[in-house]
Amino acid sequence: MVDLKAQYEKIGPEIDCAMKSVLESTAFIKGPDVRLFEEELAQYMGVKHVISCANGTDALHLAMMVLGLKPGDEVITTNFTFIATVEVVALLGLKLVLVDPEPGTFNISAEEIRKAVTPRTRVIVPVHLFGQCADMESIMELARLHNLFVIEDAAQATGAEYIFRDGSKRKAGAIGHIGTTSFFPSKNLGCYGDGGALYTNDDNFARKLRSIANHGMKVRYHYDDIGVNSRLDTLQAAILRVKLKYLSEFNASRRAVADFYDETFAGCLQLASPERAGYSSHIFHQYTIKVKNGKRDELKKYLESQKIPSMIYYPGPLHMQEAYRNLGYGENDFPVTSALCKEVLSLPMHPDMEKDQLDHITSSILKFFDN
Ligand SMILES: Cc1ncc(COP(=O)(O)O)c(C=O)c1O
User: Fold this and answer.
1) Distance between alpha carbon 36 and the CA centroid of its chain, in Å?
2) Residue 150 parent element (H or E)
3) In angstroms, what is the span from residue 59 Cα to ligand 1's centroid?
4) Beta partners for 288?
5) Ligand 1 centre from 60 Cα, in Å?
6) Backbone dihedral angles phi then psi of residue 122, each to the nearest 5 degrees
7) Are strands 95-99 and 74-78 parallel, antiparallel or unpaired?
8) What does the pLDDT look like over 168-202, one tens digit per residue?
9) Which residues line ligand 1 (CB under 6 A)?
10) In whole angstroms, what is the distance from residue 309 CA to residue 305 CA?
């Protein structure tokens, strides 16, 4: 699905050099690369503050901690996402309110959010799934109307841009009150282990987030907040500083792969290519097709026989998972999510895909549907 080895071969000498300098400095925790990476990423993102942390799940957790929510406060998010988005809501004793995504873009539906708002709603968490922004302008309008916080889960969309109706643009994660991301190795901006970060333009949130992520400590051994230990290792920050320089180039290569898939599949009626929303650029963390003739699992097996990997993101709706049964949702409450879970298939997608690999993947898929 991804080829981190090919990527390392390309940028290996720079990575080795960055790692060696950290090893020689022995500044493994909160070394200078951490601050420099935060500054460079803030500039790239167009935000005032980047607060790095240990992973993308922690970033979401910290974001919810800083808002001063009370048990039972409602958090609206999409039913079609990775589990991390919802587990932190449950962990903090908040009430998880799931809504269906849009069937075309896979992203949370602003209309479904509008229907789910109650007097107890405090937060909306849009997830910019598979590399494309959710409909942020509509979501921010709703949030303003009801006085809600917006935490953007931008783990899969580092570098994607939202285009507002007046033509101005902002990066995914830089629009809501707080944005979060993950540097899991396979992400568009991934490190060589776990890592994550938060984005905000709010000085108070930034100060408090830095404190909470470091045991609730602003001054050494003085604890103003109840905190956690969630820090980005200096080694990972040094690696990310190198990889950030290549992010735009790598995202453009992914887009070229997606264009090729789109063109090749254009006449194939049994599958739908991912819809591209007019209000967002797409950085194709995943290229996810919908198989329309009920043969998704057969196609997956056929691709395996051709030595072509594929993945189902996501195979089961969150509201039917054992751990979340207590939410009280019924099997048929989320028709869009349930349909997507049966249709979606993500194809290999990374910046180093070769023409012969793409030809093999696309011709195998077209051949399968011909039969
Ligand atoms: C949408 C989404 N949110 C959150 C996360 C959590 O990130 P991490 O694995 O770094 O904890 C991920 C990915 O792993 C993700 O895809």
Assistant:
1) 23
2) strand 149-153
3) 9
4) 346
5) 9
6) -125, -25
7) parallel
8) 999 999 999 999 999 999 999 999 999 999 999 99
9) 55-57, 81-82, 84-85, 127, 153, 155-156, 182, 184, 194, 196
10) 9
Total count of residues recorded for the chain: 371
CA-nearest of 27, 32, 88 to 60 is 88
- Which atom of ligand 1 lies closest to the CA of 285? 16
Distance 61 CA to ligand 1 centre (A): 11
Tell me whether strands 74-78 and 344-347 are parallel, antiparallel or unpaired.
unpaired
Mutation test of ligand 1: which of 53, 156, 240, 313 has the most ligand atoms closer than 8 Å to its C-beta? Answer: 156
Question: How far apart are the C-alpha atoms of 161 and 151, rounded to whole Å?
Answer: 16
The amino acid sitting at 337 is: T
Buried b (16+ CB within 10 A) or exposed e, 110-136: bebbbebbeeebbbbbbbbbbbbbbbb
Read off the pLDDT of residues 291-302 as tens digits, 9 standing for 90 and up.
999 999 999 999
What pLDDT score does 218 carry?
86
| Of 227, 201, 250, 189, nearest in space to 56 by CA | 189
Cα separation of 81 and 327, whole Å?
17
Q: Which atom of ligand 1 is nearest to the CA of 184?
A: 10
CA of 173 relative to ligand 1 center, distance in Å: 14
Question: For residue 271, what are the CA distances in angstroms to 24, 267, 296, 299?
Answer: 53, 9, 9, 11
Tell me how far the alpha carbon of residue 23 is from its chain's centroid: 30
Q: Evaluate if residue 78 carries a pLDDT over 70.
A: yes
Q: What angle do CA 33, 34, 36 make, to 5 degrees?
A: 60
Q: How far is the CA of 264 from the centre of ligand 1 (A)?
A: 30
pLDDT at 104 over 80: yes
- Main-chain phi, psi angles of 254, to 5 degrees: -65, -40
Distances (CA, A) of 301 to 310, 346, 368: 9, 13, 11
Task: For the full predicted model, state whether its pTM sits above 0.70.
Answer: yes
Segment 46-62 shows an average pLDDT of 98
